Amino acid sequence: MCPSFEKLFGKNVIKIKGVEEDLAKEIARKLNIPWESVESRFNNTIGSILLELAEMKKRWIVILNNHPEQAAILCALKKMHFYGLYKEKETFLKEWIRTICLKEEYDWKKHNLEQLQRKDFLKLAGENVLAEEAYLETIVTFAEEVTGEVELYKELIKAYQEMIEIFQEIPEALHLIGMILRAVWTRTSDLASLRLALQAYGEALKIYTLKEYPNEYALAQWDLGALFHNLILLKEKEENCLKAEKAIQNALKIFTEEAYPIFNKTLKENLLELSNLCKNSKNK
């Protein structure tokens, strides 16, 4: 039988106050740990909140040192999560993960996904892979983590350039990359992100042809028109006016008044706004 605390430390043992459940939930939220995964083992201690992360960290180190193909899959998931290349926040397309791994010259074998599922890093759901945000953000690490706002932005642009090359034959991914880069531009006003967005849409439209993918073609042309619209006030105004108008007209080939009245109305409003902007630009 183990000796009591009083025998070991005397009667004046200081008892540390436990963590209240509300605070524990807040800690879990900030660490992106789902409360459902903590609740059953929570015993009012910090350790019971972090136990799962500590265990997963150990598993990650073993994978990193012994299973490079599995590590590549988790790193691909981390990249896709960081750069916004997912269907929903924790749902990733298996084919996109495969594309990244093969491009980085790692063997692609189904059993590696199954092994990672057994190790609780992910769940397989048909053509999708479900991965916990907490694991991707805090457990899986790259060889070198980038710090500093300027360096992070440079790395971001470099990474999206890499993603465009990796997903050259997957237009859904290219369209998504274009949308993300346009959002990056609205926050940074840096032309590098806008140029890359144009490149992503250009690559997507090599596959999204009017004949084979009419709706996808029209949506990509609509977004492309918006990008050229953004460029009008920055550089080569007349050229970008013509490109923006052409892209919107291309979108209107599919989004007709009869078939898509709401889209058609919006596009025509965009066209009128564009016409007025281009006239004003010429007069300056």
Q: Would you report the number of β strands?
A: 3
Q: Indicate the CATH topology of the largest domain.
A: Serine Threonine Protein Phosphatase 5, Tetratricopeptide repeat
N-to-C SSE series?
HHHHHEHHEEHHHHHHH
Q: Characterize the quaternary organization of these chains.
A: single chain
- Helix count, DSSP H or I runs of 4 or more residues: 14
Strand order of the largest sheet: 1-3-2
What's the structural domain tally? 2
- So what's the CATH class of the largest domain? Mainly Alpha
What's the Cα radius of gyration? Answer: 25 Å
Residues in helices, as a percent range: 55-70%
Low-confidence stretches: 1-17
Note down, in words, how this protein is organized.
With 284 residues, the protein is mainly alpha-helical. It has 2 domains: 58-138, Arc Repressor Mutant, subunit A, CATH 1.10.10; 149-283, Tetratricopeptide repeat domain (Serine Threonine Protein Phosphatase 5, Tetratricopeptide repeat), CATH 1.25.40. 68% of the residues lie in helices and 4% in strands. It contains 14 helices and 3 strands. It has a 3-stranded antiparallel β-sheet. It is elongated. It starts with a helix and ends with a helix. Residues 1-17 have low confidence and may be disordered.
